[in-house]
Protein: Alpha/beta hydrolase
Organism: Sphingopyxis macrogoltabida
Amino acid sequence: MRTTPFPAILTALLLGGCITPVDYGKVRHADYVADPRCTAQPGAAVDGEALPLFFATSRLPDCRTADIRLLQYRGDKVRYGRFAPPRDVEIAKKKEFLTPLAFQTDADWWAALRAETDRRQGRVLLYVHGYRENFETTTKDAAQIARMTGFDGPVIAYSWPSQHKVLGYVVDETNMYHDVRNFRIFLKSLAEQSWVKEIVIVSHSLGARLVIPAISYVDRTSSSADSSNISNIILASPDIDRETFERDIEEEVLSARRVARDRRITVYVSRADKALAASRALHGYPRLGSPYCFDPFEAADLKAKGLPERCYPVAISGMTVVDTTDVSRGSTGHSNFLRSAVACRDFIDVVAGKRTRPERTATQLGHVFRLLPDPGNPKPEDDLICNRITGGSENE
């Protein structure tokens, strides 16, 4: 059998729009971080009122200019700090969308997080982004989640070095897997803090592939009481193999004893999700976030029964699936939990810990619910209800 040379395979992938090559860049990475502002000083004053949100990132910072930026390259370590929602800034007569931020030492950051947590209810929300994000789109979404939910506790954005390029998917996958160790160490540290009573984790897209193995790792290795403070896990448009998820999730993350201690997962899915359709085409198997029927015979059976041709993960104790297909928004339908009024309302309640909602429509499966347009308000003000502020680079 003839084999295809690797250069030909690479060319086919490039022409097919699957990958964009990444290089080192034109600046030595050491030069990006040479300025002292890239090295946080113990006890340095940070205005918590001006920078109310928290971040942890493995991105390489660029401290060569007045405004610190976080790049698409892998950093030399995980850095911590505070931020405010990104905004348009005029630099050299050009508008740029930038996130106001300040770095803190590990010790100072954890102390500030504890003070904020103690001042509230002991709850922490951790947001992990997905494919095609830069630091600004990550912080923008994290800030929207904080506003939209009115979360009563600190909100943390964890940002890994995604490329923020449509054709950067394979590079993003590579960097995401490279970051597994960083993220699981961070999550373990967070879960083991005695003052953290509940962790709400929200992951989007490719971020699910960081979150699920990390929770499993913390469950196996944590010295805390069964990692039970990781209780409310939300997977929005998860780009993870559906069958792998079904096979493995009950071993650790949704084991019977953890479900008994109130752990749960809510999965937001959409058949209209174009990004996950592309991921399915690339990987060959359906993603958890898309109710695509891989088995054509199963699809035919559903059609014969007059049901939508949508196939969901099997019923697993502790897991609820919410189908947002019918209220999908955006050019790709990949961020309905932040774009669609109906989905946003559901997401707000899930973050608050509510298990049921009258707006959900039951399906033939007990663990699956559909969200449908409100007949009395077929065109809701999505941006207003989702507390969304437009601006900067949109990533649907």
Q: What stands out?
A: Residues 12 and 106 are 44 Å apart (CA to CA).
